[in-house]
């Protein structure tokens, strides 16, 4: 990096592609500039590493604009949903959208790494079969650490005791590392 160059780390809502207009106030102008630079990266630049802990929100307010390359890629996660599987709302969860965006950007780059901690429902959910299939097709190495902890499933720890979540949430979690060489 030369003088004036910054480390290319952006704090942004990955799923927000709206343009933020510049503001005159000191704080908002800095945020606006950060959002603008992050938007350029999301739309135009190759990304080799995606990491995060996206929110788990079945009632997502992040709308994916139809017709974009990302939206077509995201829709591929729903390709083989069966007619009898009427409730596909979990596929609209923010964490699924984030995983799809990361997957899409790594596919664009042709190589890269995704490292995220997420809701673990995609590991064995019936409607999540396309996500698992796409991972197998597109990545050379897949590492998953299922931390379990789903209070609703009433899972047991290996010793037979209560399976407690590492976070103070009811949903089980997993750490996934996807590598495309």
Structural class: alpha+beta
Number of strands: 4
The number of distinct structural domains comes to: 2
What is the string of SSEs from the N terminus onward?
Answer: HEHHEHEE
Unreliable residue runs:
none
Q: How much helix, percentage-wise, in residues?
A: 25-40%
Question: Largest sheet at a glance?
Answer: 4 strands, mixed
What is the general shape?
globular
User: What share of residues are in beta strands?
Assistant: 15-25%
Q: N-to-C terminal Cα separation, in Å?
A: 25 Å
The number of distinct helices, counting runs of at least 4 residues, comes to 4
Rg of Cα set:
18 Å
Strand order of the largest sheet: 1-2-4-3
Indicate the mean pLDDT: 82
Architecture blueprint of SSEs:
Layout: H1 26-44, E1 49-52, H2 69-75, H3 94-109, E2 112-119, H4 129-138, E3 141-148, E4 173-180
Parallel strand pairs: 1-2
Antiparallel strand pairs: 2-4, 3-4
Task: Please characterize this protein's 3D structure.
The protein has 181 residues and is α+β, with helices and mostly antiparallel strands. The protein has two domains: 1-45, no CATH class; 46-180, no CATH class. It contains four helices and four strands, in the order αβααβαββ. The protein has a four-stranded mixed sheet, covered by helices on one side. The chain is globular. The two termini are 25 Å apart. The relative contact order is 0.14. The mean pLDDT is 82.
Entry summary:
The protein has helices spanning 26-44, 69-75, 94-109, 129-138; strands at 49-52, 112-119, 141-148, 173-180. The protein is of the alpha+beta class.
């Amino acid at each position: 990096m030369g003088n004036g160059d910054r480390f290319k780390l952006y704090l942004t809502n990955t799923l927000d592609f709206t343009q933020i207009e510049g503001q005159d106030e000191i704080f908002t102008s800095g945020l606006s500039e950060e959002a603008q630079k992050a938007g350029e990266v999301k739309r135009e630049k190759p990304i080799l590493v995606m990491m995060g802990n996206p929110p788990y929100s079945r009632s997502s307010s992040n709308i994916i604009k139809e017709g974009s390359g990302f939206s077509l890629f995201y829709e591929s996660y729903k390709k083989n949903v069966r007619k009898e599987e009427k409730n596909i709302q979990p596929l609209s969860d923010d964490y699924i959208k984030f995983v799809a965006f990361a997957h899409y950007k790594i596919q664009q780059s042709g190589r890269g790494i995704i490292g995220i901690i997420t809701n673990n429902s995609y590991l064995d959910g019936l409607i999540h079969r396309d996500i698992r299939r796409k991972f197998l097709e597109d990545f050379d190495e897949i590492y998953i650490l299922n931390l379990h902890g789903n209070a609703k499933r009433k899972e047991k720890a290996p010793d037979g005791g209560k399976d407690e979540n590492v976070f103070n949430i009811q949903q089980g979690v997993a750490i996934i590392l996807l590598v495309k060489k």
